[in-house]
Structure to design on (414 residues):
């Protein structure tokens, strides 16, 4: 009797195990189908359309998303280009995506012999607008854009990242209802400066290579000290003075060797006091430059104080923060020649919403001018404008959520 019971029990157990095994297989197959369906249900497909330009690293295109019809900028990087920088830019862009004044991430994929990054299209960059305004922005315009530019750097630094290439071509405006917003772009030279969780700051080191554009880099960057938040802020100071005065004392230096040229630029930056550099400008420019140059290596800049200074300067001028930028009048001929009495020399080889807080609102995506994409932070730009008759179609593969890697400090660019 007990043997018969045991036999029945074993049979039932075997049937149960078989059923469980079959159910497991069914669930596994169902899960695979669901994953497959999810992966291919709505692939982001892009068309390459107009080629904006090319650099040593790859090409930049205007494209569009087939599913939405939305126009995008596509950066195409050759796999042969070493070291790759697009993957770093993608990670930073994903972490910033959706914040006011930053391009929206649209896709990242690998094709035959290249990697590509799709992001929002914007309007003209500040370098182009500066030239439209006879290489001089009105003081009112400089003070208004300073407010937004400080906010952009504050948010980037809040995201544990340094920009390290502050220059006119890396700030852009939107179009239509976004033309009052200043965008910060080009994150190929960015670097994580602190651990995202513990906020432990990277150590100060010496003997680093110069990173960025020589005209705007900080004195500490020149002498090989590790970059930190203070260096982005100092670079911004030089850029604002350049916009306000039309030139900087260390422009137009000619030398056969870059090292010699950088040495002369450094010496001029060292010997030119903030008071001398900001001569003819509101005292707030001197305050700003003195403050950022005196920051400790790991010290957080007082972004709110800087914005307040520049807003006070605007009030002193009896001007309103009304977004009436001078470039809005440049094309209509309202800007007189008197705005550029000391026209800056041509730059050779360097071509390249309340703004008081950073926000997480979604920027509208818009189309840029053909030559408004920054191609390579440290090389000459070559712009080629032509249409492609054969439209290349690619599919952006889904990627895992990008997290800025701890201590993976974009070693390629150090």
């Amino acid at each position: 009797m007990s043997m018969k019971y045991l036999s029945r029990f074993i049979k039932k157990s075997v049937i149960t195990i078989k059923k469980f095994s079959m159910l497991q297989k069914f669930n596994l197959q169902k899960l695979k189908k669901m994953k497959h369906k999810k992966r291919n249900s709505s692939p982001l497909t892009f068309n390459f359309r107009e080629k904006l330009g090319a650099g040593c690293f790859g090409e930049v295109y205007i494209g569009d998303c087939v599913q939405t019809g939305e126009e995008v900028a596509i950066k195409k990087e050759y796999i042969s280009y070493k070291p790759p920088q697009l993957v770093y830019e993608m990670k930073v862009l994903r972490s910033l995506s959706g914040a006011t004044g930053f391009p929206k991430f649209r896709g990242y994929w690998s094709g035959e012999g290249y990697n590509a990054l799709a992001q929002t299209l914007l309007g003209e960059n500040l370098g182009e607008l500066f030239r439209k305004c006879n290489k001089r922005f009105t003081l009112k315009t400089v003070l208004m854009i300073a407010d937004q530019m400080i906010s952009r750097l504050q948010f980037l630094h809040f995201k544990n990242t340094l920009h390290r290439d502050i220059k006119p071509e890396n700030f852009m405006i939107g179009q239509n209802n976004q033309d009052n917003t200043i965008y910060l772009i080009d994150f190929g030279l960015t670097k994580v400066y602190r651990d995202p969780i513990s906020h432990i700051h990277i150590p100060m080191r010496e003997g680093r290579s110069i990173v960025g554009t020589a005209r705007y880099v900080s004195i500490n960057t020149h002498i090989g000290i590790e970059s930190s938040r203070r260096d982005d802020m100092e670079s911004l100071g030089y850029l604002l003075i350049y916009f306000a005065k039309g030139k900087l004392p260390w422009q137009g230096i000619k030398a056969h060797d870059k090292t010699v040229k950088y040495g002369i630029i450094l010496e001029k930056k060292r010997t030119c006091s903030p008071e001398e550099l900001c001569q003819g400008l509101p005292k707030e420019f001197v305050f700003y430059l003195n403050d950022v140059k005196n920051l400790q290596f790991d010290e957080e800049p007082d972004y709110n104080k800087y914005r307040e200074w520049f807003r006070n300067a605007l009030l002193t001028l009896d001007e309103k923060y009304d977004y009436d930028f001078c470039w809005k009048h440049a094309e209509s001929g309202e800007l007189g020649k008197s705005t550029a009495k000391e026209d800056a020399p041509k730059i050779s080889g360097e071509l390249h919403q309340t703004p008081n807080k950073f926000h997480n609102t979604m920027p509208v995506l818009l189309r840029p001018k053909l030559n408004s994409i920054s191609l390579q932070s440290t090389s000459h730009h070559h712009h080629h404008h032509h249409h492609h008759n054969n439209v290349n179609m690619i599919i952006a593969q889904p990627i895992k959520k990008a997290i800025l890697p701890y201590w993976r400090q974009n070693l390629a660019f150090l």
